[in-house]
Amino acid sequence: MNTTSTYTVILETGYRLFAEHGFEKTSMAMIAKEVGISKPALYYHFLSKEAIIDVLFEEICKDIGFASFFNVQDYSKDNFEEKLIFDGLSIISKQKEDDNYSRIMNQYQALGYRNPKYSRKLLDSLDGFTVGFVELLRHGASIGAMADKDTLIKAQMLTMIIDSMDNFMSYGFEYGYEDIWTKAVKAIVLEDAVK
């Protein structure tokens, strides 16, 4: 039995079509046809294409937020390094699995140049990573997994590395992202670990 709602199918279809054709070239008629509903039925759920773009952006931002990948309570002294590496690698994995992610995020970044609400939300997402990493690193220090030193700088560096890898992947660079993240975690966070 398929329990996926029409609303969800519309968002998933919009995500794919926007990634494939761009915001400008994707029409409400295309989305309705692909979903298998009439245009009036589509308008029942979303008043405009812009409404779909907005809701989709909110959903993507929730999905890619710090808390989607890192849960501070799951970190212990014994697993801190390994878990930080693993959780960061899960971001890379997720992006590699979704061919549409980079294309649609590039479009949202372009929208951000014209509409500050998109750029603000993207900046808030990055800031959320910095805040999250600060909390995670302070937790690491409190449980004796690492020294309590330069926490904000380390959090900012980890955020910059995550964002840079995201950007480089979206450009199609075939770098050793797993090795980059692993070395970064070891060099930045655990260089002065309490043993």
From TrEMBL:
A Pfam family it matches: TetR_N
InterPro entries: DNA-bd_HTH_TetR-type_CS, Homeodomain-like_sf, HTH-type_Tx_Regulator, HTH_TetR
Record feature DNA-binding region, as residue ranges: 27-46
Signal peptide: none
Keywords: DNA-binding
Ranges for domain HTH tetR-type: 4-64
Listed name of the protein: Helix-turn-helix domain-containing protein
Lineage: Bacteria, Bacillati, Bacillota, Bacilli, Bacillales
